[in-house]
Design a protein that fits this description.
The protein is an alpha+beta fold and 103 residues long. The chain is 34% helix and 31% strand.
Length: 103
């Protein structure tokens, strides 16, 4: 911040007080907003790629095999149990229809 103007001196331009605010907004964008948008895009692509036969890990920690894929839900089998879960519950695809992933 520049010191207040003395009597007889012109006041500093208003844009000089806005520079720190603009820099703060830019830092927040690159530190918080942009990485979150990138992560959401990757999750959406992952959900589009889920297909029958894939081994998945859910957000709750269940490892299962995908049986059927619907618009908003997935039917999975884990051990002797069969579940229908929402697609958003998929954390990652651990194995692709018989192929081991390199994750």
């Amino acid at each position: 911040m520049s010191p207040p103007a003395q009597p007889g001196q012109p006041a500093p331009p208003i844009w000089t007080n806005m520079v720190p605010l603009v820099l703060l907004v830019v830092v927040f964008y690159f530190a918080l907003i942009r990485p979150q948008q990138k992560k959401q895009k990757q999750q959406a692509e992952l959900l589009k790629a889920v297909r029958s036969g894939d081994r998945i890990l859910t957000n709750s920690g269940i490892i299962a095999t995908v049986i059927t894929v619907k618009d908003k839900s997935i039917t999975i089998r884990s051990a002797d149990a069969k579940f229908e879960i929402t697609k958003s519950a998929v954390a990652e695809i651990t194995e692709r229809s018989g192929e081991a992933s390199e994750a």
